[in-house]
Amino acid sequence: HRFSEFSKWLSIVKTKTTLINSYDQIIWNLDKHYLQELSNKGINIPSSYFIKKNSSESILKMMTKNNWEKVVLKPTISGAARHTFKIDSSNVAEYEQQFAELIKHEDFMLQEFQENVLTKGEISFMVFGGKFTHAIQKKAKEGDFRVQDDFGGSVHSYSANEKEISFCEKVVAALDPKPIYARVDVIWDNNNNLAVSELELIEPELWFRYQPDAADKMAQLIFNQLKELKNI
Q1: pLDDT digits over 96-132, tens only?
Q2: Rounded Cα distance, 157 and 135, in Å
Q3: What angle, 0 to 180 degrees and rounded to 10, lies between the N-to-C axes of helices 23-30 and 3-13?
Q4: What contacts 181, CB < 8 A, 6 or more positions away?
Q5: Helix or strand or coil: residue 82?
Q6: CA 32 to CA 50: how far, in whole Å?
Q7: What is the mean pLDDT of residues 70-95?
Q8: How far apart are CA 79 and CA 4, in angstroms?
């Protein structure tokens, strides 16, 4: 977890080169509080509760307040499932002390566990210039809920339907400015509705090996951006 180092590096880089997605948008995308902003714009997200650094609330109290039986706890600035835990009433006591220490250092978020992740996994939709190009499906290994390959998750080709394409393009359309590239990670929530689990605008795996010509589309968008900036 090297957020401060990355932020410092990024502030230097922006003065020396052109970032494909804007500096302000990258900074915004680093913190998962952006999910709340998307929700405020009418984009469906999993039921979430954001917890400020140094909060004294217990996990059990937050679960009870929101009437959640199973939850996932994770930092708002994180990647690769760092400090990410699946918790329910049978094991919540085991995590209270650890959480009490972790919350001293950073903000966290608590989300109701979405059961469909276990069977349907998570779909990553690649959206370039506001238009969908391709998608892949990530599934957790048996007995786990984390879809990342770091934890044994698997990746599969995926054919998106019109409803899914419309949803992921709507997510990107809610952003201002519109990013050159975005990966919209989507799950089916406990009401079987599409929901944004994460929006990746910084350095996501874009799975070009599943759709090689999508790389040409992204390259053309970058060229067009540079042409406008440099008037070449």
Answers
A1: 999 999 999 999 999 999 999 988 999 999 999 999 9
A2: 7
A3: 170
A4: 20, 21, 126, 127, 128, 201, 204, 206, 218, 221
A5: coil
A6: 9
A7: 90
A8: 14
Strand ranges (E), 67-218 = 70-75, 85-88, 108-112, 122-128, 131-139, 154-158, 181-188, 194-200
Sign, CA dihedral 228-18-20-28, equals negative
For the segment 184-208, what is each residue's pLDDT rounded down to a tens digit? Answer: 999 999 999 999 999 999 987 999 9
Q: What is the mean pLDDT of the chain?
A: 92
Domain that holds residue 26: 3-44+116-225
Tokens of 126: 């690649």
The answer to whether residues 107 and 35 belong to one domain is no
Domain-embedded: residue 230: no
Decide: 148 and 80 in contact? Cβ < 8 Å: yes
Output the CA torsion 149→111→69→97 (10° steps): 80
Are residues 131 and 211 part of one domain?
yes
- Looking at the structure, tell me whether residues 22 and 135 fall in a common domain: yes
The pLDDT of residue 87 is 96
Q: How many residues does the chain have?
A: 232
